[in-house]
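queue> pop job 88
queue> type: inverse folding (structure -> sequence)
queue> payload:
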């Protein structure tokens, strides 16, 4: 699967892509998308087809009425209004301001690292060492300063 971590400032992910139980290559799991005048960060753990639907939903303006029917995914969405958690068919679940959150198969490792004081990028590096479904380079992004 993957590891995606949010530390309140930075969204980070591994880049390893797996098909069920086999290593399959590397891919970007987080994106910075411009919606109108606003930059949005989104990181998706789960199937590529459902991730694509979420990326398209963000690119089209994130209308609540157009929220895609997805399954077997977890995501973190960061806007200028805050960070949100998405799981399967649920809409946006707000995360407490400044809170830390992680999704994917390495989420427990990343959360433990962040609770021990590591930032999101370092937390994903640690998760990569411990989770066999995470790997590759760490990719990280921040929203532009306002």
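queue> result:
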């Amino acid at each position: 699967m993957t590891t995606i971590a949010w530390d309140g400032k930075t969204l980070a992910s591994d880049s390893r892509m797996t098909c069920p139980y086999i290593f399959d290559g590397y891919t970007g799991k987080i994106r910075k998308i411009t919606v109108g005048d606003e930059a949005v960060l989104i990181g998706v753990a789960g199937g590529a087809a459902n991730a694509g639907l979420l990326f398209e939903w963000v690119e089209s303006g994130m209308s609540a009425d157009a929220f895609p029917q997805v399954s077997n995914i977890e995501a973190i969405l960061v806007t200028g209004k805050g960070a949100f958690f998405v799981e399967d068919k649920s809409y946006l679940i707000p995360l407490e301001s400044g809170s830390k959150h992680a999704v994917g198969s390495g989420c427990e490792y990343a959360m433990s690292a962040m609770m021990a004081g590591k930032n999101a990028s370092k937390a994903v590096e640690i998760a990569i060492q411990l989770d066999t479904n995470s790997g590759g380079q760490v990719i990280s992004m921040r929203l532009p300063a306002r």
